[in-house]
Amino acid sequence: MRTFPILLLCALPLAAQDTAMDPTKCPMHAQHMAEAHAGSADLDRRGDETMGFAHDRTAHHFLLTSDGGVIQVEATDPADTASRDQIRGHLAGIATQFGAGDFSAPGQIHDRVLPGVPEMIQRKAAISWRYEETERGGRVVISTADPVAKAAVQDFLKAQIADHRTGDPS
Fold first, then answer.
1. How many other CB atoms are there within 10 angstroms of residue 115's CB atom?
2. Using CA atoms, how far apart are residues 32 and 85, in angstroms rounded to an integer?
3. Coil, strand or helix: which one is 131?
4. HEC string of 54-123?
5. Beta sheet of 137-144, edge-to-edge order
6. How far, in Å, CA of 169 to CA of 46, rounded?
7. What's the mean pLDDT when you consider all of the chain?
């Protein structure tokens, strides 16, 4: 009996395992799943600390647009004005920080430099970061006419979509 294909599949990322084979055939499936959930919990904890509001009381969205994208966060409960106000303060500050080339907040949350960050820092003068309030929170509208900067912005947003598990189209 050949076991090489099963062992090779066990070394694949979790998403590939789930679609490539029956997870019960991977002897380390439980460990893989526990590590994935622990990583998500750590990201959520760091996000709550860095952003100043609870991820489980808010909804994050990272949207790609023809000239960049949008970061939008809103309180899930319309009566939760405390979260709404914390979101607004955070996003207003993020627009200013990102415009200055300071991406330390996402670095703290994700515990790594996200894709696109070096290019966005290098091309910061070509990117506009505009904060807007929404009924339940706020958004940062990101725009650029520079194709390299746009690709960097969208790489950054795609990483956010994946890490925060938003389900937004990428």
1. 18
2. 38
3. strand
4. CHHHEEEEEEEECCEEEEEEEECCCCCHHHHHHHHHHHHHHHHHHHCCCCHHHHHHHCCCCCCHHHHHHC
5. 58-65, 68-75, 137-144, 127-134
6. 24
7. 80
Cα 76 to Cα 8: distance, rounded to the nearest angstrom: 42
Residue spans per domain, the chain: 4-43, 55-164
- Residue 139, by phi and psi: left (phi above 0), alpha (psi -120 to 50) or beta? beta
Contact present, 23 and 127 (Cβ < 8 Å): no
- Give 129's strand partners: 142
Query: Any idea what DSSP says for residue 21?
Result: S
Model pTM score: 0.72
Query: How many whole angstroms separate alpha carbon 21 and alpha carbon 105?
Result: 37
Residue of 141, 165, 138, 137 whose CA lies nearest to 63 = 141
| Residue-wise pLDDT tens digits, 41-100 | 776 666 566 676 667 888 999 999 999 999 999 999 999 999 999 999 999 999 999 999
**Beta strands 68-75 and 58-65, pairing class:** antiparallel
Q: How many CB atoms lie within 10 A of CB 58?
A: 23
Answer yes or no: are the C-beta atoms of 138 and 40 closer than 8 Å: no
